[in-house]
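Lab notebook: predicted structure, single chain.

Context: the supervisor wants predicted structures on file for every construct in the current expression panel, including those that have not yet been purified. This is the next one on the list. No modifications to the sequence; it matches the entry in the shared construct table.
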Amino acid sequence: MIIYLDVIIVENFIVDFFLLYITCQTLKVKVNIKYTIIAAIFGDIYGILVLYPIGKYFSIIPFKMIIAFIMVAIAIKNRNLELIFKGGIIFLLYSMLLAGSCIFIALREGKFYNISNVIIDFSYKNLMLALIVIYIIISRIVVYIRDRKTLDKLIYTVEIKFNNSQKTIRAFLDTGNELREPVTNLPVIVVEKDMLKGIVIPEDKKMVIPYKVINKQYGKLYGFIPDKVEIHIDKDDIINIKAIIAECENKLSDVGEYNALLSRGIIY
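Prediction complete. Output recorded below exactly as produced.
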């Protein structure tokens, strides 16, 4: 089989640069183009080296992993060993994902040796297609993970105590929610009605909380003032607040991530 060295150099550089770029994005590290190029060139040199007979000693898996960590260390320009280790693992995972995509495309086109398991005649078009697909997939994964982290930071465990009943719920801090009861000026925690089953509210303690939504339509919620409301900020930080619990007929989260809404300013 004929190998064109210039083609190998260009392809390896493109792939290495791309993988280092998305690794930096995943680590939330500012991409330094200069050092990313240097790291990609370093990987390119290694890729060329393994083509020669002496390269068989450098193609073992442990050595490949060491090269990956060195490339990441150069690209992120950081001496934090934990960050380099995390980046190296991410780089290796992305490499395997890209390799799997290339193998899939090659198999679909019949450009694969059955004996030696080597891809042949893999075009630039297919390489670019694989890079684009991988970038889209990884971008969506990264955005999803970041959104999940942001959402989790805004969800708190809340304990509601009333008479002899106690309920534990998961409440989302809605920063756009400023709902307060107009007479007492107490903040309102909106809770799904199903979560309050078992709590019997005497008629003389029921309250009506009027509200207005964005489209300027008015409505009302029914609630009560519990004996105690505890919000768990974290394991060692629990705050007690005075608030009104209002029942809501609808589901607040489509996937059940939380079942109550905290109004803005209720915690800080």
